[in-house]
Amino acid sequence: MGLFDFLKKPKQKSLEQQNEEYLAMRDEEERRLNAAYDFNSVAGIMAIPVPCREVNGDSATGRVEYYLRGRCFAQHWGAGRTELALACLRKANELMYVSDMIWKRDDFMRLVYYLRKAGRNDEADVEKKKIDAYFESKNIIRDSVTSSLSSAKELDSDLVEITNSGICCAECAKYRNRVYSISGRDKRFPALPAQFKPETFTYNHVCLSVWPFIYGVMEPSFECKNVIKYSNRPFVDDRTKEEIARYDAWRADMAEKAKREAEKAKRQEEYIWLEQNLPQDCPKSFSAYSRMKSGNTQGYQKLQQLAANMGRKI
């Protein structure tokens, strides 16, 4: 690169400039949202349609539910406008139920947590049951497979490929990296197993992904010399030692994560109880309570005794 080319090359923006541009983008998103909807009255928030009209294109941070459960909620809650803050979370949850974005259970449970903080325990119980029922019925894996099979049909193809998503258990290893015939009529390839078909779907792992495939037009996403021959290899666990170790490590990590999340939920319930029943002795924030419990401090031991005197174990 010559000097002239170097001088023409745009200079990389500093972190400060990038941050300023990001904040300006967020401010513009907020301006558009407030121009489209009323976020400053309970009636206005309740009137937001479900699903709603998005005003910021494909921007995740500019979505109505993102704004409601984030900055909008924080401003109302911080100012002591409890009814407005809770209305934000209620409407956000309504939108999240029908959103095309993937929202986790913890995202929905934010409403339950703050309802309890506001002393609305009966409503919190109702919302928790609703959330539990939603996630029991929702099957993201099944929906993804069904979508891929529909895409294959739109492409006028009877074939799909099943690929490994990065980690793989012993059972899933038998089915990975093959092309399958959806109907079973294309005898060059094995028939799609029943556990992947919508009418008999039972697959509930995260190891595999299903994608439309057109033989002679598309190359498989997995490496092989002959896709027909490779797809018909024996259905056995062919993982390497490294793959087995990676899967075992992932399982251990997921178990530890679940344990941490369960402990956090338990501590949140304890903290809400302390706020409501021992307000003079309760720490000012959940994070402060969590730290003192982790350290088993004298302050925590005192709280333990006070709670025990009232019949509550923490």
Keywords:
3 domains, 5% strand, 314 residues, 13 helices, mainly alpha, 56% helix
Describe what this molecule looks like in 3D.
It is a single chain. The chain has 314 residues and is mainly alpha-helical. The chain folds into three domains: 19-137; 141-239, no CATH class; 243-309, no CATH class. Helix content is 56%, strand content 5%. The protein has helices at 3-8, 15-36, 42-46, 64-78, 82-97, 105-117, 121-137, 140-154, 170-173, 227-231, 241-277, 286-294, 298-309, and strands spanning 159-164, 178-181, 208-213. Strands 2-1-3 form a three-stranded antiparallel β-sheet. The radius of gyration is 26 Å and the shape is globular.
Question: What's the topology here?
Answer:
Blueprint: H1 3-8, H2 15-36, H3 42-46, H4 64-78, H5 82-97, H6 105-117, H7 121-137, H8 140-154, E1 159-164, H9 170-173, E2 178-181, E3 208-213, H10 227-231, H11 241-277, H12 286-294, H13 298-309
Antiparallel strand pairs: 1-2, 1-3
Helix pairs in contact: 4-5, 5-6, 6-7
Radius of gyration: 26 Å
Order of helices and strands: HHHHHHHHEHEEHHHH
Q: What is the overall shape?
A: globular
Low-confidence segments: none
Sheet with most strands: strand arrangement: 2-1-3
Q: Which class do the helix and strand fractions yield?
A: mainly alpha
Q: How far apart, in Å, are the first and last alpha carbons?
A: 66 Å
| Helical residue percent band | 55-70%
H/I helix tally: 13
Approximate strand percentage: 5-15%
For the secondary structure, the number of strands is 3
Mean of pLDDT: 90
Number of domains: 3
**How is the biggest beta sheet arranged?**
3 strands, antiparallel
